[in-house]
Amino acid sequence: MIKKVQKSGVTAAAGVQAAGIHAGFKKRKKDMALLYFPDGATVAGVFTKNKVKAAPVQYDQQALQQHDRFKAILVNSGNANACTGKQGKADVEETVKLLAAELNIQPEEVLVSSTGVIGMFMNMETMRKGVKAIAPELSEFGGAAASKAIMTTDTVPKEVSFTFEVDGKTATIGGMVKGSGMIHPNLGTMLGYITTDVAISQTALHAMLLKAADATFNHATVDGDTSTNDSVFVAATGKLANPLIASAEDAGYAEVEAAVLSICSQLAQLLVKDGEGATKFVEVIVSGAKTMADAVSIGKSVATSSLVKTAMFGEDANWGRVITAAGYADTEYFDADVIDIAFSSKNGEIQLCEAGMGVVFDEELAKKILEADEINILIDLHLGTEAASTWTCDFSYDYVKINADYRS
Amino acid sequence: MIKKVQKSGVTAAAGVQAAGIHAGFKKRKKDMALLYFPDGATVAGVFTKNKVKAAPVQYDQQALQQHDRFKAILVNSGNANACTGKQGKADVEETVKLLAAELNIQPEEVLVSSTGVIGMFMNMETMRKGVKAIAPELSEFGGAAASKAIMTTDTVPKEVSFTFEVDGKTATIGGMVKGSGMIHPNLGTMLGYITTDVAISQTALHAMLLKAADATFNHATVDGDTSTNDSVFVAATGKLANPLIASAEDAGYAEVEAAVLSICSQLAQLLVKDGEGATKFVEVIVSGAKTMADAVSIGKSVATSSLVKTAMFGEDANWGRVITAAGYADTEYFDADVIDIAFSSKNGEIQLCEAGMGVVFDEELAKKILEADEINILIDLHLGTEAASTWTCDFSYDYVKINADYRS
Q: What does UniProt give as GO cellular component (chains A, B) (predicted)?
């Protein structure tokens, strides 16, 4: 009898192995993950904009400027190795060498990530033991274990994979993610790892990742509100054996770009849905903006407003909080007297504000719409043709109950 | 027997009467306040920067440009009269005329404020009855009632008064405030009313108020994160009969400026301390900045960080969250490698981060320091000589308990 094993997330693409173990940075839970590309992979990354950058982030940024192919990415949770000065840098370098020796590869082929407490030196004894213990666990079925090992306060592991067409062949892309930036007060860092089997240059991969991260992870959190360790990597093993994609003119570029965008989008939505205690996924769709920057700014302002998020939890059609948050967004063009606001979900759509004024609406229908798990807040600025989506979740904790019924 | 009655808050200064009643905008609680200056007062105001401005805010801004002396300010809670279009404007104008007729004054001598739900038309029937009912209640001892009537979700009325010296005489200043901007997710609007008996020009008063609001209310909340109705007024009755203060060169200017700053500071701190469920008052003191804008930006970034506020509630010396919030502030000059961070309270002071790196510290002492009701977070940027304070409170709700112990 042949047992069919479905490879998950980060190990879905050919040429990727992974492992996830308990090394000892945390008391009991898995806390060390390893991605391994036996024949190498082209890697691109995007990193936190915070002016305080953790030691591994600084290391990776330099490594990715100097090289384009790598064989391993080691991740630990439980200690961020941030604000650790020279010792932190030395610890990263030692870790890189330890892992390279263990895997019999070159130190220049290793990247590292860390997440956890800031300002504490890495327990290198634990790291040494962990590196020795994790290497033998590597497997092309290790994606699920790796996705558990990168978690901190995440409630569920988050992984995605799917196939798409490149050069007449079936390409695969998969990924895993942890944490979130702004959405949950308890989570500092977001880390993301995406792998694919296409053959592509680092320049092309980096351009796609930048564009995708800006349209997804940065719309699920808030620009600038980044931790010291935020990192997203894409690794391409080339096992598909397609003709190398080096520029936007090359065949397959558009398909890979769409796949990277799609997986980033799916991973970002998983982050939002894992908002601690979140009961609703909320998409703020701003249209009719004169500039894209205005659409994004208003979307983020509304999506991060505690008042809007508590109203969503309370299933209260309090559009006044929406227009208030829109009004304090940093925008170039804004006219409070022409804005329309509506709420929609699988249960219907209801107009609440027309030309900046409240309209009489059916409270029963509004309540029904807001009872859904996924809600859209639709804002039409009527000033132009630009539009943008921003994702958030409701605030669903007990303390919020106090605020949720403020309108009534 | 003579009963000594202490005039409170907004009626402490000579020439001011006030009242606070239940008009019916809310079910049971007081919801209408009136300030009355029988012989007139010079009034200055500062208002929300939100692009969506409530009808009364629009009215007051215009009125204060056209006139400098007023006799009455009417306030209702329960309905913001925001996003109400032409009807909202008409309702303000009708309210002004109603009150003028009731008090036998000119409509140009009336100002109005509203706070409450956005996007609903004012119940003018309630307004008419309220105006009739409140006028006979006016009294020079009505400050306490007025301070109750402007409350929405405030847990306590907030009023302050004190005397100071001008021109060799004892001047009085008093005030009341409600709500807060950013600090409490449940509160939309902040309203403030300050009265004094000095004789001063509108221009001078306005300059003082602008400066004071920027250094106090704007440091307790966040610039831009303003409701549709935020307003702070200062009214000066001139009953002290000092020589008119018209410019910064005039005798008494510095004293009044200091008094306005002091009362705004005290009222802003009352706002912060009334943070729903707040157990701690936190002052973030940023020093060593190269520019004042950098000091303010970092102070606000740290003071509004949910991660920092939950750590304060958890009495956890998690300075990593402080440096992270500092690192994503919008600053011109910032060097992560030279920052010092310390916590202090009446129980002592402890250095946690030196030159951007964690230092080994006494966890017991840190805990003892953070057990105090009032905590200072001290951040020295070591880049210059500018400094700024920002006030906030902790996040103390049940849901926060989950986050408060993340570090351990």
A: cytoplasm
- Can you give the length of chain B in residues? 408
How far, in Å, CA of B214 to CA of A78, rounded? 41
Residues of B (251-310) whose Cβ lies below 8 Å from A: 276-277, 306-307, 310
Distances (CA, A) of B231 to B61, B149, B196, B247: 10, 16, 18, 24
B225 and B98 inside one domain: yes
Tell whether the model's pLDDT for residue B126 goes beyond 60.
Answer: yes
Tokens of B121: 């038309």
Q: Which residue out of A89, A114, A186 would a mutagenesis test of the B interface target, given it has the greatest number of B Cβ atoms within 10 Å? A: A186
Average pLDDT over residues B153-167: 90
* Sequence-separated (6 or more) residues with CB below 8 Å from residue B344: B350, B369, B375, B376, B378
Placement of tokens 């808030």 in the chain: A222
Mean pLDDT of successive 10-residue segments in chain A (408 residues)? Answer: 66 97 95 98 94 95 97 96 95 98 98 93 97 97 96 88 93 90 56 97 97 85 71 97 96 96 91 76 94 93 83 88 91 95 96 93 94 95 94 65 39
- Nearest CB among A120, A320, A328 relative to B118 is that of A320
Residue B396 pLDDT: 64
Element (H, E) at A125: helix A124-134
Q: What residues make up the domain containing B379?
A: 281-404
Instruction: Find chain B residues with C-beta within 8 A of A185's C-beta.
Output: 306-307, 310, 395, 400, 403
Band (pLDDT 50/70/90 cuts) for residue B401 is very low
CATH number, domain at A172?
A: 3.60.70.12
Question: Same domain, yes or no, for A224 and A367?
Answer: no
The β-bridge relationship of strands A158-166 and A169-179 is: antiparallel
For residues A375 and A312, the answer to whether their CB atoms sit within 8 Å is yes
* CA distance linking residue B186 with residue B172, whole number of Å: 33
d(CA B224, CA B97): 33
Q: Is the pLDDT of residue B45 over 70?
A: yes
Q: Give CA–CA dist A260/A238, Å, rounded.
A: 15
Query: Is residue B188 a contact partner of residue B179, using CB atoms and an 8 Å limit?
Result: yes
Q: What is the pLDDT of residue A365?
A: 96
B334 pLDDT band, cuts 50/70/90, is very high
Map residue B307 onto helix, strand or coil. helix
The per-residue pLDDT for A14 is 96
Q: Which CATH number do you get for residue B346?
A: 3.10.20.340
Mean pLDDT of B129-147: 97
ipTM field: 0.78
| Mean pLDDT across B264-293 | 87
Q: Are residues A188 and A231 in the same domain?
A: yes
Q: What is the 3-state secondary structure (H, E, C) of A151-212?
A: CCCCCCCEEEEEEEEECCEEEEEEEEEEECCCCCCCCCCEEEEEEECCCECHHHHHHHHHHH
- Total domains present in chain B: 2
CB neighbours (10 Å) of residue A2? 4
